[in-house]
Specification:
The protein is an alpha+beta fold and 228 residues long. The protein has four helices and twelve strands, in the order αβββββββββββαβαα. It is 19% helix and 36% strand. β9 and β10 form a beta hairpin. The chain binds 2-acetamido-2-deoxy-beta-D-glucopyranose (3 copies).
């Protein structure tokens, strides 16, 4: 039995040890290429295979989206100055967001640790952020394994290539994106649980954009995104 006057100190050490036990999410590499299998069937959609190129130093993120049994891919090019271009072979939609892209350490601030869970055979740490995304990280390799969105959309990371980049020419939005003037100004609540706009294929893109924009944004924007 330790002397009574040491008890506060011991309690403090115990609390510190407990805090150390809560793992912190591993920041993303500044550049990576991931192949992401996306399951939208839980939210009324289909299956997709997405090539994701995250390029923080150049302030950009790209989703090359191939729908199941559909020939023509859709590009979602997100620039950190706020502009997003969604285009395929025939059309283009431009959106202007008030915030930039997710920084590599986007999950560290404001994430809630939910413990360990085995997903698809991988032992993972699980965090959630602003009730928008549930993020699974491999306990051993620290690679992301999966993330789920509030709307039932599930993304499974099939490969994760640190330093993987896409050549500059592939980021260029086509001329049709600049010929019409239909830029939509997006508000922070553009894709939330209560918002009808998350329905439909455009809505799915909005969810991904909201992820790459608002989930990493300063607390105020994230709170606005969660509460609208
Ligand atoms: C997709 O998600 C739905 C709903 O969560 C699930 O029932 C189904 O098994 C999943 N399919 C695949 C191929 O992952
Ligand atoms: C952001 O950058 C992209 C790519 O350089 C450009 O096309 C777009 O016009 C820029 N948007 C704004 C608001 O400056
Ligand atoms: C391109 O996207 C638009 C809008 O989502 C869609 O209506 C059109 O069918 C798509 N074009 C092709 C060739 O898939």
């Amino acid at each position: 039995m330790p002397p009574l006057r040491l008890l506060p100190l011991l309690l403090l050490l115990a609390a510190a040890a407990a805090a150390l036990d809560t793992p912190t999410p591993t920041p993303w590499p500044e550049q990576f290429h991931a192949v992401v299998f996306t399951n939208l069937t839980g939210s009324g959609g289909r299956l997709q295979l997405i090539d994701l190129y995250y390029d923080w130093p150049r302030g950009r993120n790209l989703n090359l989206i191939r729908g199941q049994l559909s020939g023509d891919p859709t590009y979602d090019v997100e620039w950190t100055n706020g502009t997003s271009y969604f285009f395929n072979a025939t059309s283009c939609r431009t959106k202007l967001f008030p915030v930039g892209l997710l920084p590599p350490d986007w999950l560290a601030a404001g994430a809630v640790y939910l413990g360990r869970e085995t997903v698809a055979g991988f032992d993972c740490h699980l965090w959630t952020k602003v009730d928008f995304v549930w993020y699974y990280e491999d306990v051993v390799t620290h690679r992301p394994v999966r993330w789920n969105f509030f709307n039932g959309m599930q993304q499974h990371v099939m490969s994760f290539e640190v330093g993987g980049v896409l050549e500059d020419s592939k980021w260029q939005a086509p001329a049709r994106c600049f010929s019409d003037q239909h830029t939509v100004i997006a508000d922070p609540g553009a894709a939330t649980v209560t918002d009808d706009r998350v329905e439909g294929e455009d809505g799915k893109l909005d969810v991904m954009n909201a992820f790459f924009r608002f989930v990493g944004a300063p607390a105020a924007a994230a709170a606005a995104a969660a509460s609208v």
